[in-house]
Amino acid sequence: MKIFLIFLTFLALSIEAKLKIEISQGSKDLPKIAIVPFKSNMKIGESISMLIQDNLTLFGEFKALPKNEMLSFPSKEENFFYRDWNILNVDYVVIGNFQEENSEFINIEYFVFNISLNKLILRGDVSGNYSEKEKISKVISNRVYKSITGLNGVFDTKIAYILNPSREEYKICISDIDGTDEEVLFESSAPLMSPSWSSDLKKLAYVSFEKGYPEIYMQDLFSGKRESIKTLGLSNSAPVWSPDNKKLAFVMSSSGNPDIYIYNLRNKKISRHTTHYGIDTEPAWSPNSKKLLFTSNRSGSPQIYELTVSSNRIKRVTLDGDYNARASYFPDGKDIVLVHGNNGVFHIGTKKLRSRFINTISKTTLDESPTISPNGNIIIYATKNNSQGYLAGLTLDGKSKFTLPVKFGSVREPAWSPFMN
Amino acid sequence: MKTFNKIVILSIFPLVIGCATQVSDLVTSTNYSSAESDKYESVDKIDTNLDDLIYFEFDKASLSSDSKDLISEYVEFAKNAKAIRLEGHCDERGTREYNLALGEKRAIEVKNYLIIKGVSSSKIKVISYGEEKPIDINSNENAWKKNRRVEISLF
């Protein structure tokens, strides 16, 4: 697989709040990986392998073998010996070398070995500009991750979130998932809510109160241009981009009756999909863009329902608990994540769409806004400690829990981007 | 007690992006941007000497009999006021978008009670901030109780 990388940068201001993932609870039986410093005539070799190591251990999914414990430093398949790594109980080894390197251009060849299988599982090749070494490292990390787990890596994905540096300051921020390249997309003295990525990663939809009432905006991430959706409703909220990028589901309220609507981005038409007098909100698209999960209090308390868009047929999804809300589908479309409340305590839960049981996966009590990694493996959510909002996350195999503290202010409403295609 | 900015925008939005026939059922009498109270600022606020906060139970929008009594005391002032602004709020528990809708239900509940008592609906403006603007930022019963509210302003 030979790829040449071209990267675009978003048009936005940079700030200094910066999310940083800190593993709070790791498992002892994590797979052990060794990233051997890539052979290089310049200093870059070691820095690339360190970046790859940082990526692969970012969410606490792997344990890295320190360089000083390595017995050999192979850079090519012919000087790689399995016994050197078997002795160290290493599960996977990544090696590499520079086919070409100068101050402008680099070309890296890399290999991944599965030690227990005695097998070379990946040989790859990447080239790009020297100045883009972080991004090149992310591409290699994704390939390595996929060769080992079978799942696509998320190291080049992004996260959007709302930052409150102070009570009257609201910022919509976007950063790489590792917290680097943080940018402010929009800021206001009035509340901002509900960021949602377009599936082509070119735009973000969100709710802004800048005019004194909730209104939906779609902002181009490259030009910064904003467009609002005008309706005659009392309020517009909860925008969500469909995975096929053709529609935006949202909530419009006429005379205090919030219902689910869909805005067709092609012909600019708006269609109504629920008509109940209770609250219908928090739509979330199925991966095939044909169904929507939503929260409704039509039964007397908030519960999750599934709507088939073509027929407007509605099916109740949650039965247990006095507060089930803000659900979204996993990439397989069969499982969902939601906010599950009982007696005033709110946790993140997961559930098979077609079974009754809700599995609680978070421990703090004011947990909300879960967002799923595009490979379906990790969840990040918002929670609070002493009235400061912060983000936390976990891997679904239960092996790692982490927090994403910021230096100042409160952070909330994380939205994990889709894959960069 | 609440200041809000003078809002200068179009009075009624045409559906800039949309097809009129498709969305005709969406057009309703209530509209934030056309509400009379947009013309007023906090300096124009009428001081009624009444408590301007109506409180609610968790995840509920219904009015207690005490709340109904308080709103009734507003009726004469409201009939003479040029504009009425009702701002709905929730505590931090539960989800943000749901709370935005719940805050709106709370404000609408107060609005409907005023209408029943003879106040003209056209001068009432309703807005919800959900859980975005708490009075008390602490995470305890006492703070939550204060934050589940509708704020009444007369102009």
The structure class of chain A reads mainly beta
Cα separation of the termini of chain B: 13 Å
- For the largest sheet of chain A, list the strands in their spatial order: 1-8-7-6-4-5
Supply the number of helical segments of chain A: 3
Mean model confidence by pLDDT of chain A: 92
Q: Residue share in helices of chain B?
A: 25-40%
Largest sheet of chain B: 4 strands, mixed
Provide a descriptive summary of the structure in words.
The complex is a heterodimer of chains A (421) and B (155). With 421 residues, chain A is mainly β. Chain A has two domains: 32-149, TolB, N-terminal domain (Rossmann fold); 158-416, TolB, C-terminal domain (Neuraminidase), CATH 2.120.10.30. Chain A has three helices and 32 strands. Chain A has helices at residues 44-56, 83-86, 133-149; strands spanning 2-4, 13-14, 22-26, 32-35, 63-64, 92-101, 105-114, 119-129, 158-164, 170-176, 183-188, 192-197, 203-208, 215-220, 226-228, 235-241, 247-254, 257-264, 270-272, 280-285, 291-296, 303-308, 313-316, 323-329, 335-342, 345-352, 358-360, 368-372, 378-385, 388-395, 400-404, 410-416. In chain A, the strands form seven sheets. A six-stranded mixed sheet of chain A has the order 1-8-7-6-4-5. In chain A, helix 1 (44-56) links the parallel strand 4 and strand 5. In chain A, helix 1 (44-56) packs across helix 3. The longest helix of chain A is centred in the middle third of the chain and has 17 residues, at 133-149. The two termini of chain A are 15 Å apart. The model of chain A has no long low-confidence stretch (mean pLDDT 92). Chain B is globular. Chain B is built from four helices and four strands; from the N terminus they run αβαβαβαβ. The chains are: A mainly beta (421), B alpha+beta (155). Chains A and B meet through strand 16, strand 17, strand 19 and strand 24 of A and helix 3 and strand 3 of B.
